[in-house]
Amino acid sequence: MPRSWIAVATALASMSALADYPDKPVTIVVPFSAGGPTDKVARDLAEALRKPLGGTLIIDNVAGVGGTLGAAKVAKASPDGYTLLLHHIGLASATALYRSLPYKTLEDFEYLGMINEVPMTLIGRPTLPASNHAELAKWLEANKAGINLAHAGIGSASHLCGLMYQSAIKIDMTTVPYKGTAPAMNDLLGGQVDLMCDQTTNTTGQIEAGKVKAYAVMSPKRLTAPALAKVPTADESGLKGFNLSVWHGLYAPKGTPKAVVEKLNAALRSALKDADFHKRQEALGAVIIADARLAPAEHKKFVEAEIAKLTPVIKAAGQYAD
Ligand code: MLT
User: Fold this and answer.
1) What pLDDT is recorded for position 320?
2) Can you tell me the distance from the alpha carbon of 173 to that of 158, in angstroms, rounded to the nearest whole number?
3) Which of 81, 121, 233, 298 could pair with 292 in a Cys bridge, judged by C-beta atoms 3.0 to 4.6 Å apart?
4) Which pLDDT score is estimated for 15?
5) Is residue 252 within a helix (H) or strand (E), and if so which, with residue range?
6) What one-character DSSP code corresponds to residue 25?
């Protein structure tokens, strides 16, 4: 068969494959433990994607090493649109933190669009003898030899926030890594660790139930979600300029056909307009992305800028990295 016919046959085959895409379950890899904030965003988004994308969506929690194991799995997956990654600011902070990664952040992924931004909250174990940040600062100063700060692994959002907090108050803590802030939260509730900096998607319920001490929200203004409105901002607590919002995005392996990327981006845009998705996410303090970063090219540009922004922040805090 002449070469040009082969090219035509291949083109026709890929067009018909796209026309049926997805014709088998699409897996969304979440690089942290089930039940945590990243997992929560993924399950809410999968629910909202079902209608616009069609087919079945499966969540695969591939946790470990601050989210880099899950990211590496997707970077190496077949670029056919059936293995996606839902990740957050950790994709940028890990790039600045690790000397070498099993993937190239800006080369090994197709950027499918951004999802939301989630504020961070500084919370403490229920038995911690400090009911506001001023009292916490005094307690930390008096106990600085043995403070345990939980996070989801080097390069995670909770790790980054913990580094920035230690830098801001100039106290070096023992950092305790977990495969996600869901297991970390269990130990905080049980008093095994003292502090954690985690996303409101995971802390709102505990704060509302009075099960943890809420010291600050790392956002420029107080949050509007009822359970969070009474938590002072970092600025109000004397932590000047300490803003950290955890953005989430969707990714596919590099080389995923353009038409599949476009179909996934269109489905994502439609899912982000879903009323139930908005309601669930906003009740937990999340803000849905509705700007240019919904476009793959702008999404990628934003992540590139975040890597450049976070690198000096992480280097400055580097002395606290475990
Ligand atoms: C993190 O701290 O980076 C993650 O949000 C933790 C998680 O999703 O479990």
Assistant:
1) 39
2) 14
3) 298
4) 67
5) strand 245-253
6) P
